[in-house]
Specification:
The protein has 97 residues and is an all-beta fold. The chain is built from no helices and eleven strands. It has one domain: Rieske [2Fe-2S] iron-sulphur domain (Rieske Iron-sulfur Protein, 3-layer Sandwich).
Amino acid sequence: MPSVMRAAQLAPGEMKALDLQGVRVAIANVDGAFYGFSDVCSHGDHALSDGRLEGMALICSSDGSKFDLASGRVLSGPAPKRVRTYRIQVQGDELVI
């Protein structure tokens, strides 16, 4: 599993987009827990990391679609399907996907 960043680089309430070998992935910090997800809204080619967090929900800044951070499932559309999620582990001070 590759280390993607230091945990201290992502404060609670923040998101950061990454390019992992051509795959757009984002990581969110929700109260010290880290969640990884596809950085592409399933409704269009919009960066979800440009959106905002509301508790465990991620809201797309382009179309307002709301996704559950833990499962990627759609909480409200217009997004037609869930987004892929990635398990993030904290190893020492590194985030590993």
